[in-house]
Amino acid sequence: MIRFAFVLLFTVIASASVQAATIVPSPPQLSAKAYFLIDANSGAVLAEHNADMPLPPASLTKMMTSYVLAVEMDAGRVKATDKVVISENAWSQNPLFEGSSLMWIEPGKEVSVADLERGIVISSGNDATVAIAEHLAGNESAFAEMMNAHAESLGMKDSYFVNSHGLPHPEHMMTSRDLATLAIALVNNHPEHYAIYKEREFTFNGIRQYNRNTLMSEDPTVDGLKTGHTEEAGYCLVASAERRGMRLVSVVMGTQSTTARKNQSRSLLNYGFRFFETVDLFDAMHQLETPRIWKGQQETVSAGLMDETVLTLPRGKKKNLVTEVVVNEPLEAPVAVGDRIGSVRLLIEGETVHEAPLVALEAVEQGGFFSRLWDMLMMWIASLFRA
Known about the structure:
Layout: H1 2-22, E1 34-39, E2 45-49, H2 62-74, E3 83-85, E4 110-112, H3 113-121, H4 126-137, H5 140-154, H6 176-189, H7 191-194, E5 201-204, E6 207-210, H8 215-218, E7 222-230, E8 234-243, E9 246-255, H9 258-275, E10 276-282, E11 286-289, E12 303-305, E13 309-314, E14 321-327, E15 340-348, E16 351-360, H10 369-386
Helix pairs in contact: 2-4, 2-6, 3-4, 4-5
């Protein structure tokens, strides 16, 4: 009896421990006007507040300026060594820039694209953004059109650009969700240019300036991205960090201080890394089943997932993942590679966490006349038993 009671007590304690380990609390509630937390690889949204509210982005705008530049450079249309002649409009003494962050470039001088890129990303120079805008598009308004075209291609549905730097304009707006989309595009599509975001300082014209993303100096897993501040926008920060192969992107907009934007970004990132994990489940073209196919030149077909499957799950829950495959029966030839022939569901404790089409991973042509006739007979007989 005593032994039974001990076993029962151990079972209760163990059960309670397991349950405690898998509880995911609600995301932290922040004082920012808007915030967003997403896994850069799976696309899982882990926290959000006013994610689709257009807000003044201040210097977060420069992420799009640097993205357009990265696209042009990676396409070979612009080189890092190209020289840009600085116009009066891009001069650091332009009255429009008074009191704002600058790279301190001078009119008539030639500055390399490589230096201007760092002037945008590290120094957050408004003068550098205008110089690049004019170099890439001829003038600022044409460059804004390029920015909006890239935003549309990335699926940034609720953002609109009027200038390259983010100084206040009533129509110039971005959302926290769109900023995360842009950050992920920089990380995944332009890694060499993204690497500049983690550089701590940049010296130009004898002036050394330090990266304003101070979260990087306190958390070595943070390697980007960008700060922003105007009176209208408040203090903003888009941050990205990677821990144990899991990359998260956080966005906070409209906080009250540099300390607040840093601490709130840290809270979001720590929440995501503490309670979730990203798992690579299946490679692209991964076979899950070989179902019967009728009227074909072969009896079975390789079936599985066309795309790589990456999921963000509550930490420790991967072992509970169940794969459920449903084939559209009866399955008949011909089928081509990529044709949908069923569905795949991934479940944890009965709840669907991911659903995708089951597709043919190989083509199956129709069989000959007599083999098709035979299969028709077999299908008819099988239907009698199903009835």
